[in-house]
Design a protein that fits this description.
The protein has helices spanning 42-47, 50-59, 85-88, 93-111, 127-138, 164-175, 180-194, 197-206, 220-237, 254-264, 268-272, 276-283, 311-316, 342-353, 367-372, 430-458; strands at residues 18-21, 31-36, 61-66, 120-125, 145-149, 382-387, 402-404, 407-412. The protein is α/β, with parallel strands linked by helices and 459 residues long. Keywords: Glycoprotein, Hydrolase, Protease, Signal.
Length: 459
């Protein structure tokens, strides 16, 4: 794969990894399902995107998962990929789309037999969903349509309120039993107990804290609170109705499970212990006897499906700055850092990357809109699906179920982060079953229209 798709002065190449399955490919009237890889190892996305596998037989589809450059094993400069500005310079959404475009052409012409004129449908979730939407906008001659699930294409400067992300997080928790008033009462109870020796003993014992995570002074009561608020958005993101291991092993409806103790908590002790369920189910995913939160011997679960080096953070410091921020009490239980301005982000990035040559000219917070647009008035055949439980839904193309031409927005009440892309499950909600049926209808229409056009050309 060319390291630089957009200049004629760099002839260097690298190996881009992709996964392919042709078990269901129909050489007569088949199609190709193409997943635009996210910021992580591509295997993880193949494992958690069962919808593509489920419907491939119906559409006679070959399945392809393309890894995003600079992630997984697709490292343009090997172990030195993240060493300096000159090696990181080619990490961008636009270069990744260039990879996908070249790969699609290669697949159709050389890798998959009898695929030259077969229609390609793109799929993606989260950042991958953004890439699918932008792929359809940039390369409509290569893909006939795209399912952009939970794609926060509007979580950028001056488009969507930055605090929407945390507003949705607290809404999901409140609807599951964690009323804001109860959360604040629980925090106050923990702070009160952490001020006394006996209170700290009570917390250490009843939270089953490991030796390295003992609360030994009053300030560490706040640490306990911070660990809970620090996982709230993640729990809301993966609030699926059945057990999953998408981020870490979690039970079905994990937010509801985390909120159960809050519903009947009344005394100081009950309120102080209300955070335990959430902390234990998230951090104690190995079911150890003790809860380990801080200390060198603690093993925390991942916060994403895996990344390489500084890949995603680097992208946020160049083109992908999303100014998400919390308003703090009384609006939400998080530390207040709204507004999160361009200057704030640049200072954070400069602190991280000044030693490798980072400058203000590399920070381009408006480039995404300059490059891809905001409303996509000329685009066609894109589904934007979002779930209202998901904090990322606040950056969706639309906040309601609607359409503009063949751009469709579907917003589902009881759905979390790209739930529709997951495989069929016995505990699936009725609303997600209905959404998937609509998505299959659109995909069928895109493929049929593309085949009709191809047949007319051949005639």
């Amino acid at each position: 794969m060319p390291i630089d798709h957009f200049s004629f002065g760099n002839s260097k190449t690298f190996k881009l990894r992709y996964l392919i399955n042709t078990d269901h490919f129909n050489k007569i009237n088949g199609s190709i399902f193409f997943y635009t890889g996210n910021e992580g190892n591509i295997e993880a996305f193949a494992q958690h995107t069962g919808f593509m596998w489920d419907i491939a037989p119906q559409f006679g589809a070959a399945i392809v998962f393309a890894e995003h450059r600079y992630y997984g094993e697709s490292l343009p400069f090997g172990n030195g990929t993240y060493s300096n500005i000159s090696t990181m310079a080619y990490l961008s959404s636009e270069q990744a789309l260039g990879d996908f475009a070249v790969l699609i052409k290669y697949l159709k012409e050389k890798r998959i037999n009898n695929a030259t004129r077969k229609p390609v449908v793109s799929f993606g979730g989260s950042y991958g969903g953004m890439l699918t939407a932008w792929m359809r906008i940039k390369y409509p001659h290569l893909i006939v349509g795209g399912l952009a699930s939970s794609a926060p294409v509007h979580y950028f400067e001056n488009v969507t309120s930055g605090h929407s992300y945390f507003d949705i997080t607290i809404r999901t928790f409140e609807n599951s039993g964690c009323k804001l008033k109860s959360l604040f009462a629980s925090f106050d109870a923990i702070k009160k107990l952490s001020n006394t020796t006996n209170g700290r003993k009570f917390l250490n014992k009843n939270y089953h804290l490991s030796l390295s995570s003992q609360i030994i002074n009053s300030s560490q009561g706040q640490d306990l609170i911070d660990y809970f608020t620090g996982i709230m958005d993640t729990l809301a993101t993966v609030d699926y109705p059945y057990p999953t291991n998408f981020i870490t092993p979690l039970p079905g409806w994990p937010v509801k499970k985390a909120c159960e103790p809050f519903i009947n908590a009344k005394t100081t002790e009950e309120l102080a212990l209300a955070l335990y369920n959430g902390l234990n189910l998230y951090y104690n995913y190995n079911n150890l006897k003790y809860l380990c939160l801080w200390g060198d011997d603690c093993i925390s679960p991942p916060y994403s499906l895996g990344n390489n080096g500084d890949g995603w953070y680097w992208q946020t410091c160049t083109e992908m700055f999303q100014p998400l921020c919390a308003r703090g009490p009384p609006f939400d239980p998080f530390d207040k850092w709204c507004p999160y301005l361009n200057e704030d982000k640049f200072n954070d990035c400069n602190q991280s990357y000044y030693n490798v040559g980072y400058t203000k000219e590399l920070f381009r917070p408006t480039w995404i809109f300059n490059n891809y647009g905001i409303e996509y008035p000329t685009a066609t055949n894109i589904i934007f699906s979002n779930g209202k439980l998901d904090p990322w839904s606040g950056g969706g193309w639309r906040q309601t179920t609607t359409n503009v031409g063949s751009l469709y927005s579907y917003v589902v009440e009881d759905s979390a982060h790209h739930y529709d892309l997951r495989g069929v499950h016995p505990l699936d909600t009725q609303s997600i079953k209905e959404l998937r049926n609509k998505e299959k209808m659109h995909i069928h229409q895109w493929i049929t229209e593309a085949n009709n056009i191809a047949n007319n050309i051949n005639e």
